[in-house]
């Protein structure tokens, strides 16, 4: 991933974005950053990062299996953060992660996060309906092409 753009579509280099968090050089300073780094971990099939960023109270014995299944069956295309609200040690992030499907797939979720001893963790999420995408808008994958000429 040297000098490659980060999968979270921040337009930063991976090593200077989610890479810092994946390598344990930094902890996320807010829930949105954690959300982005979890998305990148999905793209890069980093199951251990995804497991360790689930809140300890929410970890399940089948987490690893579920993560592996999602990674095998889903090809992620891009991420947009719609809203990020933080109140003390609780936060919510409303986001859409796009994936390859016909028409294009959307995981639209409002995730909840909690901070414990200075570290943010993913708690759980609520699924929301997909948003309407214009076929003449730029594709969510960041190619610069119109959706209808790319992954639409
Ligand atoms: Zn990133
Ligand atoms: Zn595309």
UniProtKB/TrEMBL annotation:
<comment type="similarity">
    <text>Belongs to the UPF0225 family.</text>
</comment>
<dbReference type="InterPro" id="IPR004027">
    <property type="entry name" value="SEC_C_motif"/>
</dbReference>
<dbReference type="InterPro" id="IPR048469">
    <property type="entry name" value="YchJ-like_M"/>
</dbReference>
<dbReference type="Pfam" id="PF17775">
    <property type="entry name" value="YchJ_M-like"/>
</dbReference>
<protein>
    <recommendedName>
        <fullName>UPF0225 protein Q7A_2264</fullName>
    </recommendedName>
</protein>
<dbReference type="Pfam" id="PF02810">
    <property type="entry name" value="SEC-C"/>
</dbReference>
<dbReference type="InterPro" id="IPR032710">
    <property type="entry name" value="NTF2-like_dom_sf"/>
</dbReference>
<dbReference type="InterPro" id="IPR023006">
    <property type="entry name" value="YchJ-like"/>
</dbReference>
